Automatic annotation (TrEMBL):
EC numbers on record: 2.7.13.3
Catalytic function, reaction form: ATP + protein L-histidine = ADP + protein N-phospho-L-histidine
Protein name according to UniProt: histidine kinase
Organism from which the protein derives: Pseudonocardia sulfidoxydans NBRC 16205
Transmembrane spans: 46-70, 76-95, 102-121, 177-197
Length: 423
């Protein structure tokens, strides 16, 4: 009977090995990903100041160690020792921006330094005091910066590094104090993890504050929309209703009227009723965060009625409508609104001018044009909101809207809309 001692992929041992491998890979080489919590907005100025403080601190330690410890005939010339300690200063320079890279540089140099200098006179623990002055800040920042598994990995690998240095250093080392060094590393890592957890809590609190502020802003916007809806109803609905009522009752109040006058008044009343109905739907949109009433919206099929009503109202309108097949309701509504706004613009800025409307299919796009000649009535200045609204509607579908004067003094509006929606 044979047994396979290797942990299976789905077993707890296999999962533990995968987690350990992921943590070690992140600690040894994390790649191009940022490895710190430092994007917290309020910390950027602090980071800049910490860089200055860390570099200054590292230079002070390097100069002190080079002058007081290494300036000895048995070890190394002080000036050369200072140059040898610069990689530790570089690690401190990286510590608050790329803490994991700083830890890697520090770890490599801790192993290399004993082979470059002579032995200290007394027997020392695993690391000398000047080495701890470099190692502790770098390990603290690395444990602070990463997530909990990476911070634990930093602590474990630093402890293993101390063991390697203990047995590889070319001079005698007091191995009995290894456990004290490991304990110091453990305390530093735990402090760093505590700082990191507090930092994460602050970021989560800030994110929650932003979410609450956005929710309050949205509630305020809904309240403002409801207020606008009430104002529109009070200001506009009453007058639109009065227009419709007066037009409908005019034949009874004014006695005999010519047939064309009766027809004109009936059409004005119908237009007022239609405008009132559309405004009621708009009020529903303003009052609701999820949209207005689900009433049918006009589309391509209603263009004929729109143009006929404009002609009946006295506009010189001609049209050619050939959508080349069925058109989706959202796209049809945009086509309808573009033509409607084009007619309104022509009536406002070129009163009395002939208007030509066309709708055709060109490949996978619908092409809508509204062209008018030079007007005979005075131009009425506009606010530009109509063109802006049309452009926004067209761009929602991934289309384009072009507007330009024509050679004969008129104006051309041309919209192209992808039939399948945004490309």
């Amino acid at each position: 009977m044979t047994t396979d001692a290797a942990p299976q992929p789905g077993s707890p041992g296999g999962r533990a090995l995968r987690i350990a491998g992921t943590v070690l890979a992140a600690v040894i080489w994390q790649g191009p990903r940022p490895d710190a919590r430092w994007p917290y907005p309020r910390s950027r100025r602090l980071i800049r100041w910490l860089t200055v403080v860390f570099v200054g601190y590292g230079l002070i330690v390097a100069v002190s160690a080079a002058g007081a410890i290494f300036n000895d005939d048995n070890r190394m010339v002080g000036g050369i020792a200072f140059l040898m300690l610069l990689p530790f200063v570089a690690a401190l320079w990286l510590a608050n921006r790329r803490p994991m890279d700083a830890w890697r540089l520090m770890a490599v140099w801790v192993v290399v330094v004993p082979f470059l200098v002579g032995p200290p006179v007394p027997t020392v623990p695993v690391l000398e005091v000047w080495e701890w002055l470099f190692v502790i800040p770098v390990v603290l920042m690395a444990a602070w910066a990463g997530p909990a598994p990476v911070s634990l990995g930093v602590g474990i690998l630093t402890a293993l590094l101390l063991g390697v240095v203990t047995f590889l250093t070319p001079w005698p080392v007091d191995a009995g104090l290894l456990w004290v060094s490991v304990l110091v590393v453990g305390v530093v890592v735990m402090v760093g993890m505590a700082f990191g957890a507090r930092w994460d809590a602050r970021r989560a609190l800030e994110a929650e504050r932003l979410r609450v502020a956005e929710a309050q802003a949205e509630r305020g916007a809904l309240a403002e929309r409801a207020r606008i809806a009430r104002e529109m109803h009070d200001v506009v609905a009453h007058h639109m209703s009065m227009i419709a009522v007066r037009c409908e009752t005019a034949p009874y109040r004014l006695g005999e009227l010519p047939e064309n006058a009766r027809t004109e008044l009936a059409e004005v009343a119908a237009a007022a009723r239609e405008a009132l109905g559309e405004m009621q739907n708009l009020l529903g949109v303003l009052r609701s965060s999820e949209g207005g009433e689900r009433a049918p919206q006009p589309g391509v099929d209603e263009l004929e009625t729109l143009l006929s009503d404009a002609r009946a109202a006295g506009a010189d309108v001609t049209w050619e409508l050939d959508p080349g097949g069925p058109v989706a309701a959202p796209l049809g509504l945009t086509v309808y609104r573009v033509v409607q706004q084009g007619l309104a613009n022509a009536a406002q800025h070129a009163g009395g001018a002939p208007v030509r409307v066309s709708l055709s299919r060109s490949g996978s796009r619908l092409v809508v044009t509204v062209a008018n000649g030079p007007g005979t009535a005075p131009d009425v200045p506009g606010s530009g909101q109509g063109l802006r609204g049309m452009r926004e509607r067209v761009e929602v579908h991934g289309g384009t809207l072009d507007t330009a004067p024509t050679d004969d003094g008129g104006y051309l509006l041309r919209a192209e809309l992808p039939i399948g929606g945004r490309p």
